[in-house]
Amino acid sequence: MRQLFLTLLLNIITCLGQEMTVTQDKKFVVTHQGSSISLYCEYSGTTATYRVFWYQHKPGKGLELMGYSVAEKDQTMENKFSVSWRMERSEAKKASLQCDKLTSDESAVYFCAFLKRCYTMDTITTTDDE
């Protein structure tokens, strides 16, 4: 049991000690209804694997999760947004969010977030000793 505890603790310390920088390409965009837009987000400064989340924030409302990705080429959009928006993640450290035909309903603040996937793989051996 002592070895398992030490292994878990070392993995947690390793996970918490990594720093990263998240960058979005656009700070402010004014566009017309019917036009398309692509938003890009990436992180740097670590070799860890992160989950990516895209959020929409409209004035006077709370944050809404638009979609997320747990790995490259694996993305899930929330039903409400899947009709007009799509997310891509062709590389582990980069993600994009696209809309091909903007409407006035899309006026909002958009941002991405990365969450580190920290987990351990440990082997536990049991015996039938009585």
UniProtKB/TrEMBL annotation:
Residues 1-17 form the signal peptide. One of its GO terms (cellular component) is plasma membrane. GO terms for biological process: cell surface receptor signaling pathway; immune system process. CDD domains: IgV. InterPro entries: Ig-like_dom, Ig-like_dom_sf, Ig-like_fold, Ig_V-set, TCR_beta_variable. Keywords: Immunity, Signal. SUPFAM superfamilies: Immunoglobulin (SSF48726). Residues 18-112 form the Ig-like domain. It comes from the Eukaryota. PANTHER family: T-CELL RECEPTOR BETA CHAIN. Pfam families: V-set (PF07686). PROSITE patterns: IG_LIKE. The keyword Signal applies. This is Ig-like domain-containing protein.
